[in-house]
Structures are given as structure tokens and as C-alpha cells.
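Action item from last week, closing it out:
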Amino acid sequence: MAGIYLHIPFCRQACHYCNFHFSTSLARKNDFISALLKEIPLRKNYLEGEAVETIYFGGGTPSLLAKEETGTILHALHSQFSVVPGAEITLEANPDDITSTLLRGWRQAGINRLSIGVQSFFEEDLRWMNRAHDAKQALECIRLAQEEGFENISIDLIYGGPTLPDPHWRQNVERAIAFGVPHLSCYALTVEPRTALDTLIRKHAVADVSPEDQARQFLLLMDWMATAGYEHYEISNFARPGHRSRHNSAYWQGKKYLGLGPSAHSYDGLSREWNVANNAKYIAEPGLVSEREVLTADQQLNEYIMISLRTAEGIDLVTLAERFGPRRTEELLQRAEKYISGAKLKLVAESLRLTREGKLLADGIAADLFI
């Protein structure tokens, strides 16, 4: 089965750390929706008739869509694709957009999972990140969503910033757990090039992030979530049993997905392509592909290593041997030996998995295991 991702390229204001494609002007939102509705039938053959089990509204800020617009888009998807009954349909939402009326509209349209960009429950963190919502809205939005019948809720939290001491980090996590939120995505604050945060740090207008603080807070997070009964099923993701993100899990399992909207990526198992990251060009020519890359066998192997190693299940050596051959599997194990002996990787039931300490170095270990 496959997934569909829709990129909604609008935000009320720019978060200092964000490097995703978006516009803070809503002037062409209606034109974008018209273009998206044109792109959907144009791309209906990309998945080759494969059933769709997940739909994900990302961005940007999809909660800026009116409830009628969300419903229209979902109706168009159902008309062109074979969406399975009970498909996971997620919408990313910002706390300042969430109202009881909008929540009811989303549920009526078919949204059954919310991913809420809380980031922190503390005012100083939100102001430092230039988030549009305040601490009161961060708390209120979860209560409203639950009151309107949303049970499958994920919230995003950011750690490792200079305004977040360990006691506040603990309170952020404890509040999420106390709400009974079944899924948390927790990210270390990353300074991406050419973002406002990057510029502010280089000008010494704000404090830089501390890798030591980030490592410590990540280790604390793993302990707290394990004690609370959450599965650490991917480096940045924690879930109550049965509440893993089906959409994101499909990415990590290498399943096909179609990306719709400007800058959206698509993957068919052998090649990857992405739409133009320009709203005006996308509106003029919906589905305009900016670039396409056919993956070589070695690139496919490296991608399998990278995405698998981030998951709790790790790299399945049997699957790797079947797909890429015994020789490649043996070479991988040879490269992994120094990390196994250094207690950063472990062999468990024919799989290669990161240890607790290895998770601090996940990207670097994966890169070192590449062909």
C-alpha cells in the first residue's frame, strides 16, 4: 500500500528555525487550492493503482485551510485514488488555529489524526522560536481536540534550545504525558543554513545551541518516555502501543508515496522526484516536477541503511541480503564491527540496531555504514 502527502505552503509567520518551503502571504491561497485540485487527477497514475492507506496534510500550516477546503481536497483524492477504509488521514495544525468549529469540520471532512505543533508549553521558548501561538493556546488546543473527539493526536516538542533548562524540558514532556497524548515527535533544535535563526546566531543576536545540552536532554527524554510506557520506535518519535504514525512508518519502510503541492517529494520504489518549490510556478503549472532522480542499487542500499537504522527494528539483515546480496551484507557487518564493539550498535535477532548511546550518533553512524 502507498501514501499521499500534500504540501500546504502557507504560514501566518516564519518560525526562526524553519527551512521548509512556505509563504507568509495568503493572497494566492485560493489559486493554490485550484492548482492542487488540478494536480490530483494529473498524478493519479503515479502509484499505479496501488491502494492508499495514509494521507498527510503537511506544510507550511495546513490548519490555515478552511474546513470546506480540506473537505474538497479529500473528496478529490477519493475520486482519483483507491483510499482504503480506515485510512489514516493526518492534518498538521498550529495551536493558534484550533477552534471547536474547525475541529468539528475537520472530523466531518475525514481527518482522523492531528499532529499539533506545540513545540513548548513555555512562553519564553515560543517567543524565542517566533511561534505564532502562546503558552495558553499550547495547552488549550489539546483539550479542545480531545473534547471534539480526536483520540489519535501527536504533538511536536523541541528540545536543546538555549531558553529550555532541564526542569522546563521535563515539564513539557510531563504535560504531554498527563494529557494522554498517544504520540510525541521530539526534535533537537537544528540551526539550518539561511534561516532567520542561523542569521541571528551569526550576528550574535541570540545564543547558539549547545550540542552537550541537546545530548543530555535527548537521553533524559528516552528515560522519561520509557518509564511512561511509550515505544521509542524511531529516533524522534515515541508512541503508545498501537499509535505509531502509519504515514511516517511507511516512509521508513520504503513504501511508495505521492507528493502533491509545491516542493512535495514522491517516491515509487526506484526513483525520487520533487515538485518545483515556487508557489507562482506551481500555480501556473500544477505538478511541475523540478527534478527526478533514478536511484542506483548502491543508493537504494544506502537509503535502506539510513532509514532502517533510525527505527526500533533496525536494519533487517535477512531483508538486506535478499535485496542487495550476501556480499553487501557481509561488507556492512564489517563496517559495523567498530560500532558493535564500541556499544553503539548491537546485533539482535538478525537485525542491526542502535544502542541507547548509539542513538546520539545515528546520522553519523549511518553515513559511515554507506557503500
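Closing note: The two ends are 29 Å apart (CA to CA).
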